[in-house]
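Ticket reopened. Same input as before:
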Amino acid sequence: MKRWHQFSGIVLPVLVVAALVTWPIVTGRPASRESAFTILKAIALASSLNILLGYTGYVSFGHIVFYGFGGYVGLYLLTEQDLSLGPAMLAGGLSSGILAFLLGTAILRLRGAYFALATIGVNEAMKAFINNFDLFGGPTGITLNFSVYQAYGGAASALQASFYIGAGLALLAILLSYVVRTSKFGLGLLAIRENEDAAEVMGVVAPNAKTWAYVLSAIIPGMIGVLFFFKNGNVEPHDAFPLHSSIELLVMVMLGGQGTVLGPILGAFAYQGMRGFLVTSDFFKDIQLSVSGALLLIIVLFIPAGAIGWLRHRVPTIRRVLA
Amino acid sequence: MTILLSLQGVTKRFGGLQALTRVTFDLPEGQILGLIGPNGAGKTTLFNTINGVYPPEEGRVIFRDKDVTRAKPYEHARLGMARTHQIVQPLNELTVRENVMVGACFGHENQDLGNASAIADEVLEFIGLAARADQLAGSLNVAEKKRLEMARALAARPYLLLLDEVLAGLNHSEIDNMVQTVLKIREQGITIIMIEHVMKAVMNVSDRIIVLDYGEQIAEGDPEAISKNEKVIEAYLGDPRLAEQLLEEA
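Engineering reply: fixed in the latest deploy. New output:
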């Protein structure tokens, strides 16, 4: 019984992913597969961001830079170096991790709003740099040769494979989030979130812990970037570094509950579900981002702990299950 | 006697303000050193220079034969120094047990989570917070938060414990309780420096007392000598009659 309890926090998150993978199989429609992919991608990105935002307490407004940068590196390797998808994804994730390491040592000294501003600056600077970087195609970006898909049995089965790889990455992001949350390293991060100075006095090596949290939160977004742009067939600067996507990720994490494993997953699910409804409705389709803005405002004002955080406060007995 | 901590000419300035002037003392293992002085005398600043929050401009801090003058607070913690804060710094959204586990995990024993949890329960029992272990630290009252500060520091199993006004804001019975706790901690072999305003308690508990005034060490000695020292009476105790009263009580 005790053993089961120990891992109970991971049960619900895994069930959500399992449900998302089964859904297109049941309906048999490519459209539901694409919707499920979008949600899985959001889950992977939000769970990754949560390591920095939810556990460590550092607000990153430019987290999408790791997705874009990883995606670019991956596509470059796919087209110019003829690497296959697996190694390209690993390279994309690794590059984003290294980028986070370098950035982290520089900007993680900043706290609060200053760090948040710096992350926006990093994202915009990266976009401008890539726009002028000929190796990555400058403003026109990189387009995959259609023949690349032949290695995966044609475009249709490449899409199908991408879906399962996406599900795998979402699962990996959740596991990573869970392992960090329940580890000693994670306890150090939570201490930093609550009071960085007190944490240092107690022996938490904050500069290192923050940098590694940043690196861990960047790797899977880099891999997801490669997968998404592989599936997409091309990558351009404005697709790779959209600032509003960074903010949407923040909304997802905060909606579900920052600092919990399940929160960002439910937040991603709910937000993407809502978005799917909004962009197809006549009235909301042009103003769906204003709705997310309003939503962020409501969360910050009324349920700053997010849905899961709110539940955990209200019903302490379910804390184990809602890790 | 082994010297655990040695301060040699420690001087700290904040801009034009001379916060500490050539503070020098040796602290033998197992002693309780009381640090007293009027408000703004530099007592907390001295703690901050000892544990690396503000490195001093001049002088050296030697802890367990190591020069730690320029070391970071977390390096001090790893070497076996722990402290409480005058203004309590609970990790509000973590439970009381988790707060204490942080101390055990990242202190000089570098415990893993399982051991840390066991140590936390042990320390919480000792400090009298066991019943609150699963509550969020933010929900504790001030006296309990002070105890939590102590518990976190103790969970690190330090060689040296810096206590910054753990008695302030407590009522009489809470003070008696806390004094007993401090004495019990000393019995465990932990060396203590305590900043305190509650004269009776500090006179009772300390083996030796250092008096700071405007960042200068104006007196040093055992409690009785301190309470008779005229400089101290003038600077701090105010009038000799009060000092006598305090001594009688002690």
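The longest helix of chain B spans residues 172-187. Chain B touches chain A at residues 51, 53, 72-74, 77-78, 82-83, 85, 89-94, 98, 101-103, 105-108, 112-113, 116, 134, 152, 156 (CB under 8 Å). Please confirm and we'll close it.
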